[in-house]
Write the structure tokens for this entry.
Amino acid sequence: MPVVLEDEIDVLTREARRIGARLHFTPAGEYNGVRLYRWIIRGACPFNRNGRCTIHEIKPLACKIFPLAVNLKTGDVYLSEKCLWVRLNGPRPLDEFPAEKEALKRLLVRLGALR
């Protein structure tokens, strides 16, 4: 269940309506005054078609950083064991994920955790 920013909900909801899907979100708290929500995905992501993201350019930052994960309390960045690729291939240096690292930087800036 990815954590999304409030403005990302509008984008996701609009795209879901376009394909006839319904999305569900629950509040997940705040970080530095930024409201966070859990995107409750039951089953597969409605934007996944044949293993491909149909909203790749506008998908939420949580999806763009995957398989990276961050603990906002400690600042630790790690590879998520929820990722099948990571489970099959083992840990790798974070430098092997440049696009994901860039998305993580954008997320941390949005949360006010990085300038």
